[in-house]
Amino acid sequence: MAQLVDIYVLALIVVTPFSFALVAKVLGIRLRDIISWIAPGLLGSGVAYLSVWLARDTVGTYNINSIGQLFIFGLLYSIVYFGMVAMTARAPALETVRFMRSRT
């Protein structure tokens, strides 16, 4: 099963640049603009994942049950992700929040 996941991830990594290039061409948007729009989210996700990966050994030494670890790692991921997005894309994030609030 792990090999299938590896193949799927590799396929996504190979295909994604082509799909983004096609979308950019069809919509008449520069590829650089698309990258600048998604970069804060990708950076936030990467740093948040890295922080959870680094914290796994520390949390594991406290003999916390699985639910407790799930809560701690989820909270850590959320805080780091939203912190990174706030630092790298504050204006677009606030604009999105305002838009979502106007819809309710």
From TrEMBL:
<keyword id="KW-1133">Transmembrane helix</keyword>
<feature type="transmembrane region" description="Helical">
    <location>
        <begin position="34"/>
        <end position="55"/>
    </location>
</feature>
<protein>
    <submittedName>
        <fullName>Uncharacterized protein</fullName>
    </submittedName>
</protein>
<feature type="transmembrane region" description="Helical">
    <location>
        <begin position="67"/>
        <end position="93"/>
    </location>
</feature>
<keyword id="KW-0812">Transmembrane</keyword>
<feature type="transmembrane region" description="Helical">
    <location>
        <begin position="6"/>
        <end position="27"/>
    </location>
</feature>
<keyword id="KW-0472">Membrane</keyword>
